[in-house]
Amino acid sequence: MLRLFVFELYKLFRLRSVQLGLLAAFLLPFLWALAPGLKEVYGLVLVSGWQVVSLSLMAGMEFLFPFLVVMAASESLGSEVSQGTLKSLLLHPLPRTRLILAKLFSALLYPFVLLGVSFLGSLLAGLPHGLGGFYGGTGLGAG
């Protein structure tokens, strides 16, 4: 089962849409860190790099990540059909439930990988602002 899971993960992360989604999750925090209108639109002044992390994860989890996860999960099975490999895959002497579970577990792992990549990107994007604490007047902390 583990071998099948690793194989499904390999196939999932070879999909172009998954690779582009990971790239977008890594690069979008840099837009938040460099956004010129945060004070005018949201009333925020970046005083700490941790604000970039919280803004990026908040925006990503609300809008971007659900879209990317649904797209990757549907393409996981859809690519098998479009490439014609589903028929040959089902001819192998392994239970179909194991195949479906391996695809399901690989699709369930993808959001956590997205969160990790976005977290790393936002930490790097927030480094120029420093990683000190932020309190009051930022819209994200107490005060």
Key words describing this protein structure:
single chain; 143 residues; mainly alpha; 77% helix
Summarize the structure in words.
The protein contains six helices and no strands. It has helices spanning 2-14, 16-34, 38-42, 49-83, 85-91, 96-126. The chain is elongated. The mean pLDDT is 81. α2 runs antiparallel to α4. It has one domain. The protein is mainly α and 143 residues long.
Q: What topology does this entry show?
A:
Blueprint: H1 2-14, H2 16-34, H3 38-42, H4 49-83, H5 85-91, H6 96-126
Helix pairs in contact: 1-6, 2-4, 2-6, 4-6
- What is the averaged pLDDT score? 81
Helical coverage, percent range = over 70%
Uncertain regions spanning at least 5 consecutive residues:
none
Distance, first to last CA = 51 Å
Tell me the series of helices and strands, N- to C-terminal: HHHHHH
- Which oligomerization state do the chains in this entry correspond to? single chain
> What count of domains describes the coordinates?
1
Using only C-alpha atoms, the radius of gyration works out to 19 Å
